[in-house]
């Protein structure tokens, strides 16, 4: 299959307009290598990797593929919350109850989990990672630093205004993240609830507003979604949830089981897990914390409160306390492999385009 609209494909040096979404905690070197070697662009979610570990994983990727790949960080200014971390009485009570129930000791102190982004970035530039992406925005100085090192930079936008800001900062492509998307909302301007714009509406509006290539993300699960996104003016798609159905994905068995038994109306965009709005599968933790009538801690401190609990739940294969991010395409999820998914996307798109 060859694609006629080769602009972004040539810019990145890839064969097919399919990017593996860089999913922190749900992507590893093996997945990145497989997607890049299949002609797409692999993506590593690296927000939670400390610089030394990050260097090791990047070297692992480079040993497995000579083809381009993306590594993703969270914006540096989200590392330090502006508001102080006071755990309310209701929240403390709940969390302590969960800890007792799971046989755990006292609550962990709230702490930052991600970054430091600028140190992570230094590693990526030293290791000559070809494409660096950001969630929650990126500033002009960071873009200039990445360009000076010879790499490209991309970033998610959830509104036309955010896309304009990113284009003005000089990014090389913009990921239009529709409301359907799994994981954290990339919103970095205004209230996220105003920025829950569906992929079908968001992609063409961003396409018309900026002069950089647009990558569609959110709800794209198969060749139908890929072709639709291209028809809307996207130069490529970035898919997360669809890859969670691949056997190579390093997620817990409990999360995997939930993915295959949950419908789109059982998902929720919630702040209670991390402190920032993110879309995932509703479970006991989300339901009970949302019922509390008090504020959660700011991101990323809220996430750290459940760190030990999530690790124990993972060990026990218990979905009650896991963060199980997923997008609204969940009902279309196929149990497959990365190679088979990539082949289905490309051959399915060819068939669909000819039928249309
Ligand atoms: C499990 C999971 C983790 C994610 N982690 C990240 C991340 O670390 N960085 C990022 O930029 N986007 C992350 N995302 C969002 C994706 O980049 C993308 O916007 C989304 O997966 C697209 O929607 P889809 O899940 O319907 O394909 C994550 C998504 C999922 C499902």
Topology:
Blueprint: H1 7-12, E1 18-20, H2 29-37, E2 42-45, H3 51-64, E3 69-74, H4 89-101, H5 117-126, E4 131-135, H6 140-148, E5 152-157, H7 160-169, E6 173-177, E7 183-184, H8 199-209, E8 214-217, H9 223-231, E9 236-239, H10 241-244, H11 253-259, E10 267-270, E11 278-281, H12 284-290, H13 301-305, H14 307-315, H15 338-355
This protein binds flavin mononucleotide (FMN).
Flavin mononucleotide binds at residues 21-24, 26, 45, 47, 72, 135, 156, 177, 180-184, 217-220, 238-242, 325-327, 329.
Description:
The chain has 356 residues and is α/β, with parallel strands linked by helices. It folds into two domains: 234 residues, Aldolase class I (TIM Barrel, Alpha-Beta Barrel); 114 residues, no CATH class. Helix content is 40%, strand content 13%. It has 15 helices and eleven strands. Strand 2, helix 3 and strand 3 form a beta-alpha-beta unit. Helix 2 runs parallel beside helix 3, helix 3 runs parallel beside helix 5 and helix 9 crosses helix 15. The longest helix is centred in the C-terminal third of the chain and has 18 residues. The relative contact order is 0.15. It binds flavin mononucleotide.
